[in-house]
Amino acid sequence: MTVFALLRVSPITEDDITPDVAAAIDALEEFDVTYETTPMATTLEADDVHELFAACAAAHEAVDRAHVQTLVQVDDKREVEMTASDKVDAVEGELGRDARSQREE
């Protein structure tokens, strides 16, 4: 079984949230999950849904603020073995190119 999640932990504050986001990401290291952080959210991958939810809870709890919002979206592939990179590869195969902008930065 493979389970994926989109995780966004957002402290509600006027302050810079970078240290809070870093604390949430750092909390994931204690769990048997792989993850990749993007500017908008973190994608997690695990073999066990309970481990995935525990990691998400730890990330939420790692943010020491009075008001924290956490969004978790789960994709539970119960009958298919697939990695996150397999999903991206499938889209890129259909596109015939990388699934990212071709514009210069």
UniProtKB/TrEMBL annotation:
Any Pfam family the entry gives: Thiamine_BP
Start and end residues of each Thiamine-binding protein domain: 7-92
GO CC, one annotated term: cytosol
Domain of life: Archaea
Stretch list, region Disordered: 83-105
InterPro entries per the UniProt record, alphabetical: MTH1187/YkoF-like (IPR029756), Thiamine_BP (IPR002767), UPF0045_domain (IPR051614)
Family: Belongs to the UPF0045 family.
PANTHER family: UPF0045 PROTEIN ECM15 (PTHR33777:SF1)
Record-given protein name: Thiamine-binding protein
Organism: Natronosalvus rutilus
